[in-house]
C-alpha cells in the first residue's frame, strides 16, 4: 500500500464508530453529470455603439479587452450588473453551497489587460444571503437551497429564485421567486404556493417582475423546453399577477413597455421575440414580433435600458459547434448581428449574456479552462442538510462505492472502472478498460469489486455480463500485478447491477434472460453456473438492486406499475422472495431510481425527479435528466428528505458507514481535459443554414 499513513484516519474512525450503532455520522457520495468540467467564471467585454443619423448604426466590441470578473476557483455563473459595471451580482457555488454574491469591481477605464480585474486588491466579495454558519437571527431563507437569476433593485432589495420551500407535491418544482431586503433579511415569497416560477427579470422601473412559469399546470417530465408562459406581477409583493405571453421563456426588459423572450417555434428553432406592452394599472401585450429568423437558434436574450434596440443573445449556428454570444442591432431596418465571443474563445460554450445598464459591457459565463493551478476535485464537499447524520460529497465519476474499510472508492468512467484512495492520494487507477457499470465491493473478500460489462440503457437481449474484478493484494509491490477479471454470468442477456450479500456468499443482479429484466441471485464466487435463483418475475423491468447491510432486504427500482413507460418506483423484497412492497415513488410517470441502503439499513438514498426541474434547461449545458436530485427516505416510505439543490443532473448515490470529514478532496493526478461538456443535445443544427449577416460599418 502506497500511502499507509493516509489510511490511518479511516481505521481510527472505524474503531471509534462501530458499524452497528445507527447514530454515528456516515457519508453519502453521488455523481453530478459533467460537473467537474464546469469551471464557470463570469467574463465581460466592453463595447461601444454609435447612432448617427447619416449612416448605418454600428457596434464595436473590444474583443482584446475581455476581463475575467470572478475568482477563477469557484463555479460562478448567471451574472447581472446592478447599475453600471462597477459591481457584479452573480451565483457562486463555493464552500459546498450556492449563494448570491455581490462583487465590487474597479474596472480599469482604458486599455485594461486581460484578467486585470482579478488582480485588483480593491476587489470586495460578499455573499448576500445567509451562510450556513451565520446567525439564525437573520430572517432570510435557510442557506441550503439553489439560488438563481438574481437582480438587485434600489441597491438593497434582492429578487431571486430559491428552492428552499418544498412544493408540496411530487414532481412539482420547488423553484419560486423571493425578495429579500438585505439590511434586515426580511424575505417575501412572490410566487404563489403550488406554482413554479423560473428566470425572473425585474423591469427597469423596478415595478414589475416577469417570470417563465408553468402556472398551476405543473410539470409532465419535460427535459428540453418546459413549455412555460410569461407572467408578470408587482415586484413589491407579487400582486396583480397576470399571464402576459403564452409559450415563452427567459423574459428580459429593455424598458417597462418592451419585453424580449425566447420561444422554440413550431419550426424547431429557438428564436428571440419582442413584446410591446401597454402599461397601465396592469400590463397587456400590444404586439409580439419574432426578431430572429429560422435557420439558427437564438435564446436567453438580454437587453439594457442604456442600449435601446440592442439585444444580446446566445446562439447556435452552423458556423460553430459552440454556443456563442452575439449582439443584435435592431435599430436599422434589418437586424445586424455582431459576434461577441467567437473571436475571443471560439471553442468554448458561452452562456446567459447580460448587459450593463449604462451599455458599456456585455457579460456572460464560460468555463475558464485549465492552467490556473486549481486542482480538480475528486470529492467536492456539499453542505449536508443533516451534518450530524452524514457528510455529503459529489465525486468526479459515476456509480461510486466505498471499499468496506472506507479507504478506497471504485467508480466508473463510462468507459472504464477506476479505483482511488478516499483521500485522493496517488490519483485514480484504471482497473478495467471496458464499458462497465455500476460498482459494488464484496463485504468479506477484500479488493473484490463487482460490476457489469457492456452498454448501459440497453435492451433485454444486449450482451452485458457481470464480472468480478479482484485487485492485487495491497502489500503486493510487484508493479506488474494486474487485477483478475472473472465473468460470473454466461448468457450475456443484459446481466447488470450486481450487489453482494453481506455474508459474501451471494450476488443479486438484474437479468433479461427471460425476455424481461427481473432480479436473480447467484453464487458470488462461481457465478450463475454454480447457483442461480430467480427473485422476481413479471413482464416489466426490475433493476438497480442493492442488498441491505443487515442482509434482510433487497431494494430495487421497477416500472411494474406501468411497464415500458419509463416511470420507475423503488421497491423492497426479502432475499427469500417474501415481503415485496413499494417504498417510494414520485407519482405517475415519475422516476425514482438507484436506491442504496443506509449503513443501519433503515433508510435509502435514491435519485429522483421528486422536485422537478430547477431551471430552464437551455440555460445550462446538456443534462439527460436535469431533474435528478438526491433524496433519502425511511424504508417504510416516510420522511422523504431532499439533499441536493441545483439545476444539474445528480444521480447514483452510495451511503457508507464511516464519516469523511466535510472538506474537498483534490485529485492528485492532473491533466484531465477540463471544459469538455456538451451543449443541449436538442439544439440540433440542420443543414442549409443562413450565414451570419456581416456587420456593416459607416
Ligand atoms: C457606478 O455606479 C455606482 C453606484 O451607482 C456609482 O457609485 C459609481 O460612481 C458609478 N461608476 C461609474 C464609472 O459611473
Ligand atoms: C423470509 O425472510 C424474512 C427476512 O429474513 C423472514 O422474516 C421470513 O420469515 C422469511 N420467510 C420465509 C417463508 O422463509
From TrEMBL:
InterPro entries: 6-blade_b-propeller_TolB-like, WD40. It comes from the Eukaryota. Residues 124-139 have a biased composition (Low complexity). Keywords: Signal. It holds the Pfam family PD40. Residues 124-150 are annotated as: Disordered. Residues 1-22 form the signal peptide. This is Uncharacterized protein LOC105037336. It comes from Elaeis guineensis var. tenera (Oil palm).
Amino acid at each position: 500500500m502506497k500511502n499507509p499513513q493516509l489510511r490511518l484516519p479511516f481505521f481510527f474512525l472505524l474503531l471509534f464508530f462501530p458499524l452497528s450503532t445507527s447514530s454515528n455520522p456516515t457519508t453519502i457520495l453521488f455523481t453530478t453529470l459533467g460537473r467537474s468540467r464546469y469551471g464557470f467564471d463570469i467574463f465581460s467585454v466592453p463595447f461601444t455603439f454609435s447612432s448617427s443619423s447619416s449612416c448605418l448604426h454600428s457596434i464595436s466590441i473590444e474583443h482584446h479587452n475581455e476581463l475575467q470578473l470572478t475568482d477563477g476557483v469557484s463555479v460562478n455563473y448567471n451574472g447581472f450588473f446592478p447599475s453600471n459595471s462597477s459591481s457584479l451580482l452573480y451565483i457562486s457555488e463555493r464552500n459546498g453551497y450556492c449563494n448570491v454574491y455581490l462583487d465590487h469591481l474597479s474596472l480599469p477605464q482604458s486599455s485594461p489587460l486581460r484578467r486585470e480585474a482579478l488582480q485588483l486588491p480593491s476587489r470586495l466579495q460578499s455573499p448576500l444571503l445567509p451562510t450556513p454558519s451565520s446567525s439564525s437571527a437573520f430572517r432570510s431563507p435557510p442557506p441550503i437551497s439553489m439560488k438563481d437569476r438574481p437582480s438587485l433593485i434600489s441597491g438593497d432589495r434582492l429578487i431571486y429564485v430559491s428552492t428552499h420551500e418544498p412544493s408540496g407535491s411530487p414532481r412539482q418544482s420547488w423553484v419560486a421567486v423571493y425578495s429579500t431586503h438585505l439590511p434586515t433579511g426580511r424575505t417575501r415569497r412572490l410566487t404563489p404556493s403550488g406554482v413554479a416560477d423560473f428566470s425572473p427579470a425585474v423591469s427597469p422601473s423596478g415595478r414589475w417582475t416577469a417570470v417563465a412559469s408553468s402556472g398551476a399546470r405543473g410539470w409532465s417530465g419535460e427535459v428540453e423546453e418546459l413549455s412555460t408562459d410569461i407572467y408578470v406581477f408587482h415586484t413589491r409583493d407579487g400582486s396583480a399577477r397576470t399571464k402576459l405571453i403564452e409559450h415563452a421563456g427567459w423574459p428580459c426588459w429593455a424598458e417597462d413597455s418592451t419585453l424580449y423572450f425566447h420561444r422554440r417555434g413550431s419550426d424547431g428553432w429557438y428564436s428571440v421575440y419582442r413584446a410591446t406592452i401597454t402599461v397601465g394599472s396592469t400590463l397587456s401585450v400590444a404586439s409580439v414580433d419574432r426578431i430572429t429568423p429560422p435557420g439558427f437558434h437564438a435564446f436567453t436574450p438580454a437587453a439594457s435600458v442604456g442600449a435601446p434596440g440592442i439585444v444580446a443573445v446566445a446562439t447556435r449556428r452552423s458556423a460553430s459547434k459552440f454556443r456563442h454570444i452575439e449582439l443584435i442591432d435592431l435599430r436599422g431596418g434589418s437586424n445586424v448581428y455582431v459576434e461577441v465571443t467567437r473571436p475571443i474563445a471560439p471553442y468554448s460554450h458561452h452562456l446567459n449574456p447580460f448587459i450593463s445598464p449604462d451599455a458599456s459591457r456585455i457579460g456572460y459565463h464560460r468555463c475558464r479552462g485549465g492552467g490556473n493551478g486549481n486542482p480538480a476535485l475528486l470529492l467536492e464537499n456539499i453542505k449536508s442538510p443533516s451534518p450530524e447524520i452524514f457528510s455529503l460529497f459529489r465525486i468526479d465519476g459515476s456509480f461510486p462505492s466505498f471499499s468496506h474499510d472506507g479507504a478506497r472508492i471504485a467508480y466508473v468512467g463510462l468507459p472504464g472502472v477506476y479505483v482511488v484512495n478516499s483521500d485522493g492520494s496517488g490519483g485514480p487507477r484504471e482497473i478495467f478498460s471496458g464499458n462497465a457499470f455500476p460498482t459494488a465491493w464484496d463485504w468479506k473478500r477484500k479488493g473484490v469489486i463487482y460490476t457489469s460489462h457492456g452498454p448501459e440503457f440497453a435492451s433485454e437481449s444486449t450482451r452485458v455480463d457481470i464480472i468480478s474484478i479482484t485487485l492485487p493484494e495491497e502489500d503486493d509491490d510487484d508493479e506488474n500485478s494486474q487485477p483478475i477479471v472473472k465473468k460470473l454470468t454466461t448468457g450475456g442477456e443484459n446481466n447488470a447491477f450486481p450487489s453482494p450479500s453481506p455474508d459474501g456468499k451471494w450476488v443479486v443482479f438484474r437479468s433479461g434472460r427471460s425476455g424481461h429484466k427481473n432480479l436473480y441471485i447467484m453464487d458470488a464466487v462461481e457465478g450463475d453456473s454454480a447457483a442461480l435463483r430467480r427473485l422476481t418475475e413479471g413482464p416489466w423491468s426490475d433493476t438497480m438492486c442493492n442488498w441491505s447491510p443487515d442482509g434482510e432486504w433487497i431494494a430495487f427500482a421497477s416500472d411494474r406499475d406501468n411497464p415500458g413507460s419509463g416511470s420507475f418506483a423503488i421497491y423492497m423484497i426479502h432475499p427469500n422472495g417474501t415481503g415485496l412492497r413499494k417504498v417510494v415513488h414520485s407519482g405517475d410517470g415519475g422516476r425514482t431510481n438507484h436506491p442504496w441502503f443506509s449503513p443501519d439499513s433503515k433508510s435509502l438514498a435514491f435519485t429522483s425527479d421528486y422536485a422537478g426541474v430547477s431551471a430552464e434547461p437551455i440555460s445550462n449545458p446538456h443534462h439527460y435528466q436535469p431533474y435528478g436530485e438526491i433524496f433519502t427516505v425511511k424504508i417504510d416510505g416516510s420522511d422523504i428528505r431532499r439533499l441536493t439543490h441545483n439545476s444539474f443532473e445528480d444521480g447514483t448515490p452510495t451511503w457508507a458507514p464511516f464519516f469523511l470529514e466535510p472538506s474537498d478532496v483534490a485529485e492528485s493526478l492532473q491533466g484531465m481535459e477540463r471544459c469538455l461538456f456538451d451543449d443541449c443535445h436538442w439544439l440540433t443544427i440542420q443543414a442549409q443554414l443562413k450565414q451570419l449577416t456581416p456587420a456593416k460599418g459607416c
